[in-house]
Amino acid sequence: MVLSHNLPGITAGRNMSKNRAKLSKNLEKLSSGYRINRAGDDAAGLAISEGLRWEINGVEQAKRNIQDGICLTETADGAMQEINAMLIRARRLSTQAANGTYSEAERRALQEEIDEIKSEISRITASTRFNGVELFPREPKQDSIIDNSVEIYPVTYLPDWVDGGKAMDDKAQTDNWSTTHDYTGTRTDSAGNTQTVTGTVTLNHAAARLDFSKLNADNKEELIGTGFYCTCITCNNHYSVKFTEGTGSNRVVSGSHYVYEIGIDQVQSGEDLVNAVLKGLGAGSNGIANPMGHFTMWRADPNRPDQLILYDDRSSGSQPPELNGLTGIQWSNPPWSNQSFGTSTRPNSTSGMFGRGVAYEPGTWKPPVKPPEPDLYLQIGASSKEQLGILLPRVRVEALDLKDVSVRTLKEANDSIESFEKAIDIVDSERGRMGAYEKRLEHAYQSQAVASENLTQAESRIRDTDMAEEMVNYTKNNILLQGAQSMLVHANMFPQNVLKLING
User: Which of 45, 228, 263, 459 lies most in the core, judged by the most C-beta atoms within 10 Å?
Assistant: First the structure.
């Protein structure tokens, strides 16, 4: 018998330590209420839980922001309600003054009351604030304006994350696309003999480039309804690509202008999108589309398949010297495969027009309208894009055009009736808009409340302790710990019993 080591005791001690550690974990989870107290408990679960927690915090703050917004609209509406009541009173006074039975002195008395009404409106609009923010701006309301800054009036614009460079912004060729091509031509020498000449030439094309490398599943939907176009300098037709829902392509003709609708439901990357565009435009085996049948080409960048190049294949700025004197040039490789033209047809470098919109869609065409800029923005969601722009009411006396209104004469009194009617209409319209904001904010609040509840429930399932399960584990581990302690006592008694036998 070997007595150098108490192996039963060592085993019992090790198991007791394990059970004590498990029991400690059980106590920590029961006391904290969390299943995950540190990264070592569940690294993946902790990462998900922390992401949900900051999103919950953002949603809760958005709820408070929305409540502030509702209070703002209610404050503005309350002030306008009183203004509306005063305007109704002023209109009645104007109607009274327009009656020929009143004397000049009586009309002066009516005028004094109207002046006091205007003064009170001025006081209310100047003093009504919400947390220091003026609710009735002094500046006149911005009108929606027609955007005449563009040449072709695109209907829709590509998202900002689609890089098109200056060529797309200015609709002029500021980018170049260089290609090398083989050619065959004829030249007549001084003796009148016709010679066949072959060679290679590098040409620079007026081009625009669209970079779709940032396309992903989260922003793909932003493309729907947007598009881009190019203009043929030969026929002045506009050829547009418009991204739509679905999977197929469709060509729509509006007069002499063409819109190629490209479905993007199956598109997952920038390369997929470029391929879908080229397929919808009828690209040939060389990967080059030529929907115009003229000289404008569409192709993917061979080095960057998630980028689309639009270029005019005749747009070299000057005649390459090696082509001087050649007639009947035949290009033997793309993009001019099987196309022949003489040197006299080469235009200058002003060819190529490109833009970020959809030009001349079928139906009643309207130039784009720029809405007025909001006076303030409300953050009504956890993400940066969840904002509501608020146009504050313009109901000061000057905005209502009531500054010089008078009832001192019959004519002035009669004219003032219409002035007050218009002012009442303006106030009613502004109240309606504030009411629309308030109703939207109420819906937004309910939506965020539901989102907060669902996110909290999801985070709780991941991080919180199942108390019933943890109590069962605690009881189990406590029993095991007590058993291990008892076995350790017995194991430690074993060597003593052996010594008793040896000592007799």
Answer: 228
